Amino acid sequence: MRIALMIIRNILFVPYYIIKTAWLGKHRSREEAFAFIKHVAHRANEKGRVEVVSEGLENLPERDGYVLFPNHQGMYDVIVFLAEFPRPFSFVAKKEVRNFPFVKQVMGALNAIPIDRKDLRQSMHVIQEMTKRVDAGENFLIFAEGTRSKMGNKMNEMKGGSFKSAVKAKAPIVPVALMDSFVPFDENSIKKVKVRVFYLPPIYYDEYKDMSTQEIASMVKSRIEAKIAENS
After folding, report:
1. Within the chain, which residues score under 70 in pLDDT?
2. Which residues of 204-216 are buried (b: 16+ CB within 10 A; e: fewer)?
3. The domain that contains 166 carries what CATH number?
4. Residues 36-90: pLDDT tens digits?
5. How far is residue 201 CA from its own chain's centroid?
6. What residue numbers bound the domain in which 97 lies?
7. Considering its fold, how many domains does the chain have in total?
């Protein structure tokens, strides 16, 4: 119902949003494309009666070239960051979402990386490409649980392989705790909702360099869970 509300209340602008996002991805900088997509996502939230409250932005590394690792609650999660994150970023998403209107254009404009979780060789290529781009100073978002938890504010296990790119690039890892991000799209309601985002202190390479990727995954998960418990 909320997706329908967002579309209906923006219906006159939807074709323009799709066309301009596609055009920006081909003709303008990543920063310009991101700024426009952020405007669209913010407007979607406003019309969809969703408020996003962010805390801990001061924890973000000063220099670009880091990876955000949030918990994965629902289909709405990426919009949280597109609407409110202060710096351009790209993201890794399952290849199936490229078939959705506007999502396809956003992925193209931000040069997002589609992943086929059933294709090991393609997944290795994703790790290599992401490593190269993070090392070059891009920020990335990846959901290490692999799929949304479908358990409200409870988490699935995080997969160690999702951290390989950050490790290879020796990049800061930023745990992010999402709360109630499952409500906007996964509950059949249009009641006003507040989604909370907590950016936790980054984990720098010197702290995790001697850990396995699975140990890193467990550490990040425990920090996110602790923050959720603290604010429940």
Report:
1. none
2. eeeebeebebeeb
3. 3.40.1130.10
4. 999 999 999 999 999 999 999 999 999 999 999 999 999 899 999 999 999 999 9
5. 17
6. 2-231
7. 1
